[in-house]
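User: Before I run my own analysis I want an independent prediction to cross-check against. Here's the chain; please return only the structure tokens and, at the end, one sentence I can use as a sanity check.
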Amino acid sequence: MTPMRPATADGAALVVPDRRTPMLTVGMVVWLASELMFFGALFAMYFTLRSVDHPWPPRGVELDVGVSAAFTLVLALSSGTMQLGVRAARSGDHPAMRRWILLTLLLGAIFLANQVHEYATVPFSMSSHAYGSAFFVTTGFHALHVLGGLVIMLVLLGRAAGPGFDTDPMPSVEVTSYYWHFVDVVWLGLFATIFLLQ
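Assistant: Structure tokens:
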């Protein structure tokens, strides 16, 4: 038996909006759940090494907390600009959406550039001690995720410049924002753990 479609008074079929969650969104949420477990394992590794290796951090390890705090603020601001891009997409203002996402990309690139500079200037390496291994592994995997986010934004901006994007950009913009907010929250945890708690 074929289900009946809602109809108007004159018998015309009523168009009912599709309220199902897009599969792209479902896939991103599932993938981010697996990424949460991955970073949970990295935090567990860090705290395990911290509990058995004394002193922690080793003598001679000096991190510039002030500079890292400033670039943490840059990354936190990029979450705000990304959300403004989502809001612009929802309101149908696609030029504003593109501007906000481009600004987010630039802020993320500035943060990543500081990470590269920090790797080049810290007075230890991955092979120096357990702390060095933990520092480079945790922040390095995060930096790879930031780089991945920048690539996703570049692809999104490239698609936004082409025809057909204006029909329904929301799933692409929203999943990009989910990923970027996730990356930002993970960094806040890493910053608190590595730079503040030490």
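Sanity check: Residues 34 and 89 are 28 Å apart (CA to CA).
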